[in-house]
Amino acid sequence: MLLLISTYLGIHVLGVPDQSRLKRLVPSISTFHTQLPLRESFLSANAKHSIAARRFVPPSFNDIRRILNTAQITAIAPKLKLITFDGDMTLYDDGQDFEHDSALVNLLVSLLKYNLIVCVVTAAGYPGDALRYEQRLSGLLKGFENARLSKNMCEKFFVLGGECNYLFQCKEDYHLKYLPETKYQPQNILSWSSDQINAILDVAQENLQRCIDEMKLQCTVLRKSKAVGEYLFYNMKRYEEQLDECVLSTQHRIVNYLNSPWGKKNDLPFCAFNGGSDVWVDIGNKLIGVQILQQFLGATPGETLHVGDQFLSTGNDFATRHQCCTLWIVNPDETQGVLLELTALLEAKKSERSLLTLLDHSKILLDSQTI
Ligand code: IMP
Ligand code: MG
């Protein structure tokens, strides 16, 4: 495996990734933004989950996902600058708010204290409405206040809503402030016209409605300025397959429209995804969201880490894989686990740096005494 990856990395640098064996075996393989210490990571997972000692249960999908997460954390910790989090099912349960007593509060505060830029990149789109995001993140913002985070640290916390459309920065009063698009969005995004946006959303809405009618789903459709979604009536049972059908057929319908003579001039990116109990089509996606943040805040793909739960092809975190390193978690408890691993490494790095500074100072002192 290690050999497959390192050959792939080498061939990637030469610009001919199709010639690698790994690419032939897994055609959908994405970019590796860092090396991955898989051996060490396997040994640590093995110590916890007895993978090699199991005789009837082979390594599972979850074993592999966790091994890759640990390897990615180890590889990126020394150079991490920007860490982005999905919202629903990553920081809080679906449709819920960030709890005041969530164990994640202290961990996110620690990340800011380690001087990292922290950003929530969520599909939830409330155009320019800082209060709505403050409400969903209330437990976290309260935690910042309790920890008396300095102005400098507060301003390293951002929220990017609607996948890539609405950016907010935390201010020293522990409130979010909306940043006008002209401040951070590149020209090609600023030029998205409402005609282009509405044309895609019309096609999406028509298809979502068709799915609802044909599958007799107990759903309501909601249209926003840059999104359209369908969500189940309160307490209705959801069937993953029906939601996936809505996503895949809507993706297909929009792509057909964009390739048709009527849609040919419309090249806006979109994201159709299964949110667990709803289906949404947003204009833009998290790949663009992460890219915008990297340009605005100064971080490369190898210095950026996105933590999310939706990495299947019908999920909305999937797109970030092309733009940065990623951790695939399945619930907020796992987010806590990966952050404990990460902060332990950041602490070790900090202690190492303090020790080096101390050694440097002692050397200067000794040198000056020798003179
Ligand atoms: P994420 O997991 O943080 O990206 O949030 C996805 C969830 O946000 C969806 O499953 C919806 O429940 C919710 N949501 C609220 N408004 C929007 C919107 O405008 N577009 C997409 N999702 C939305
Ligand atoms: Mg999510």
Which descriptors apply to this entry?
Threonyl-tRNA Synthetase, Chain A, domain 2, four-stranded antiparallel sheet, single chain, 371 residues, Rossmann fold, seven-stranded mixed sheet, 13 helices, 3 domains
Could you give the topology of this structure?
Elements lengths: L1 H12 L7 H5 L12 H12 L11 H16 L5 E4 L18 H10 L3 E5 L8 H7 L1 H9 L4 H4 L2 E5 L4 E5 L5 E4 L7 H4 L3 H22 L3 E5 L3 E6 L7 H20 L10 E5 L3 E6 L2 H12 L6 E5 L16 E4 L3 H39 L1
Helix pairs in contact: 3-4, 4-13, 5-7, 5-13, 10-11
The structure holds inosinic acid and magnesium ion.
- Residue-averaged pLDDT, rounded? 94
| Number of discrete helical segments | 13
Q: Strand arrangement, largest sheet?
A: 5-4-3-2-1-10-11
CA radius of gyration is 23 Å
Number of domains: 3
Largest sheet: 7 strands, mixed
Distance between the termini: 56 Å
CATH architectural name of the largest domain: 3-Layer(aba) Sandwich
CATH classification class of the largest domain = Alpha Beta
Helical fraction equals 40-55%
Structural class: alpha/beta
* Bound small-molecule species: inosinic acid, magnesium ion
Secondary-structure element sequence? Answer: HHHHEHEHHHEEEHHEEHEEHEEH
Task: Say how many strands there are.
Answer: 11
Low-confidence stretches: none
Task: Write the CATH fold name of the largest domain.
Answer: Rossmann fold
